[in-house]
Specification:
This protein is an alpha/beta fold and 75 residues long. Strands 1-2-3-4 form a four-stranded mixed beta sheet, with helices on one face. A hairpin with a 4-residue loop joins strand 1 and strand 2. The radius of gyration is 12 Å and the shape is elongated.
Length: 75
């Protein structure tokens, strides 16, 4: 989802077993693409029990830029 007035891009990901590395690759590609056009990027990750350390998962992605945030929703 794109919110031009807020200069915000919202990306929603479904994380299920066997897809963790693929989702991380997708997120990294999204950061590269979206950061050229939008000031803020928000990732909402719906986790089906794959993420063991939520803080580590968020931190690794959020360290890619100051205006990148990750919200993990556990199922």
């Amino acid at each position: 989802f794109i919110f031009p007035k807020l200069k915000l891009c919202l990306e929603v990901k479904l994380l299920k077993e066997g897809r963790r590395s693929k989702i991380i690759d997708e997120i990294n590609a999204d950061i590269t693409a979206y950061s050229t056009k939008y000031e803020r990027i928000l990732f909402v990750v719906y986790d089906l029990g794959v993420i063991r350390d939520e803080n580590e998962f968020r931190r690794d992605i959020e360290n890619a830029g100051a205006n990148i945030k990750v919200l993990v929703i556990k199922h």
